[in-house]
Amino acid sequence: MFAEPNKGVALYAYNHKTDIIFTFRPEAEISYDFRNQEQHKKIILEQFENVGWRTKELLKELINSKSFSTSFAR
Q1: What H or E segment, with its residue span, contains residue 8?
Q2: Closest C-alpha among 39, 37, 43, 45 to residue 67
Q3: What is the number of other CB atoms lying within 10 angstroms of the CB of residue 55?
Q4: Coil, strand or helix: which one is 63?
Q5: pLDDT score of 23
Q6: Do residues 24 and 30 lie in contact, with contact meaning Cβ atoms separated by under 8 Å?
Q7: Closest to 37 in 3D by CA, of 49, 45, 26, 27
Q8: For residue 62, which of 9, 25, 16 has the smallest C-alpha distance?
Q9: Structural domain boundaries of the chain?
Q10: Is there a contact between 59 and 45 (Cβ–Cβ < 8 Å)?
């Protein structure tokens, strides 16, 4: 698990499966289409492009993920 102000990355492995969780709180509201998963990935990539730890490695996994889901709260 890694955290910095307003951003977090967590990696959970269990039952031969791994979940990667990216959480963030943007400075301003982000407009997005809730149906567009590629747009969601782009938002996450932009939010985490300069975050440390293993984030770059985990973002590569996000790009190639076949089981991607998001939950945006307002």
Answers
A1: strand 7-14
A2: 37
A3: 18
A4: helix
A5: 96
A6: no
A7: 45
A8: 9
A9: 2-64
A10: yes
> Minimal CA–CA distance to 18: which of 72, 71, 65, 55?
65
Q: Are strands 7-14 and 2-4 parallel, antiparallel or unpaired?
A: antiparallel
Residue spans of alpha helices (H) in 1-74: 37-48, 55-64
Return the closest-CA partner of residue 11 out of 26, 25, 21, 24: 21
Average pLDDT, 10 consecutive residues per value, the chain (74 residues): 97 94 95 94 97 97 91 76
Number of helical H runs and strand E runs in the chain: 2, 3
State the DSSP string of 28-44.
S-----TT-HHHHHHHH
What are the residues facing 12 on neighbouring strands?
Answer: 19
| pTM of the entire predicted model | 0.88
